[in-house]
Amino acid sequence: MTMQYPDWIWHNGRIKPWAEATTHVMSHALHYGSSVFEGIRSYETPNGPAIFRLTDHNRRLFASAKIYEMAMPYSLEQINAACREVIKANGLTRAYLRPLAYRGLGGFGLSAETPTDVAVAAWKMGAYLGDGVLEEGIDACVSSWQRFAPNTIPAGAKAGGNYLSGQLVAREARRLGFGEGIALASTGLLSEGAGENLFLVFDGALHTTPVSAALLNGITRNTLMTLARDAGIPVIERDIPREYLYLCDELFMCGTAAEITPIRSVDGRPVGTGKPGPLTRRMQELFFGLFDGRTPDRYGWLEYVG
Ligand code: PMP
């Protein structure tokens, strides 16, 4: 995906020109993957631009930093304010935000006490997995790469290093001509997509894999579980073996970037009718309805840019 760089970025406490947000080549994070980050979307709403679940995302940023004992030099409120500031500075409405905290320059070695540098970027972004995928769906494959075992790298942290695994899964899928790859956990059971959680539909109920399946506890996943339960749609969190990908009535991926992307086939086998199904459509309506007012914002998830 090509990216059109915006003019401004927030870096270490202030808005600066995009090109000036640089770091030294000896920064810890570049060598050891020691960064934590978030992906957040803002949407145009009838009450102006809003950042979706801004506080929940940045809470997860702090949780990821806590897992890695990374001292955060700013408060949650300051990072939230930085997100709003960078949207405003670039005149954005529908955008993707990327808060990032990383071990910078200072000392040498794995346990070096480096300073934590923090940046927040935001730019215009459409559908992550390609034009038209939200309507038509994608063809997915099960990756030959597994997710890391739970006692190796914590999947519950959204850390830069985790995305070496994601890159292997996503790159293999694209090379083989698929829209996205799905990974199994080290148990052999289903985990998640390269950068998305999974929902399978059986008999009108949503089934999703549990956090013990080496996945990131997605905020979109939580959003959909909440919206479904509120609408009386059963939601079941459970271990799921691979072959159920081939047997479910409907299948979709979800994430901040991917939003709700239907999956029309897995490993060459059609999912259900081979077209996005009715519950997938319903979940898209409920989700996107949050931004045009069709779905009431009962939980204060829309945090207005102001
Ligand atoms: N799993 C992985 C590995 C991800 O990178 C993402 C995207 N952040 C997700 C799941 C979905 O999480 P969320 O809905 O919070 O964006």
From TrEMBL:
Pfam families: Aminotran_4. The keyword Lipid metabolism does not apply. Coiled coil: none annotated. PROSITE patterns: AA_TRANSFER_CLASS_4. GO terms for biological process: amino acid biosynthetic process; branched-chain amino acid biosynthetic process; folic acid biosynthetic process. Its EC number is 2.6.1.42. SUPFAM superfamilies: D-aminoacid aminotransferase-like PLP-dependent enzymes (SSF56752). GO terms for molecular function: 4-amino-4-deoxychorismate lyase activity; branched-chain-amino-acid transaminase activity. GO terms for cellular component: cytosol. Its cofactor is pyridoxal 5'-phosphate. Pathway: Cofactor biosynthesis; tetrahydrofolate biosynthesis; 4-aminobenzoate from chorismate: step 2/2; Amino-acid biosynthesis; L-valine biosynthesis; L-valine from pyruvate: step 4/4; Amino-acid biosynthesis; L-isoleucine biosynthesis; L-isoleucine from 2-oxobutanoate: step 4/4; Amino-acid biosynthesis; L-leucine biosynthesis; L-leucine from 3-methyl-2-oxobutanoate: step 4/4. It catalyses: 4-amino-4-deoxychorismate = 4-aminobenzoate + pyruvate + H(+); L-valine + 2-oxoglutarate = 3-methyl-2-oxobutanoate + L-glutamate; L-leucine + 2-oxoglutarate = 4-methyl-2-oxopentanoate + L-glutamate; L-isoleucine + 2-oxoglutarate = (S)-3-methyl-2-oxopentanoate + L-glutamate. The keyword Transferase applies. Keywords: Amino-acid biosynthesis, Aminotransferase, Branched-chain amino acid biosynthesis, Folate biosynthesis, Pyridoxal phosphate, Transferase. It comes from the Bacteria. Belongs to the class-IV pyridoxal-phosphate-dependent aminotransferase family. Acts on leucine, isoleucine and valine. Involved in the biosynthesis of p-aminobenzoate (PABA), a precursor of tetrahydrofolate. Converts 4-amino-4-deoxychorismate into 4-aminobenzoate (PABA) and pyruvate. This is Branched-chain-amino-acid aminotransferase. The gene is ilvE.
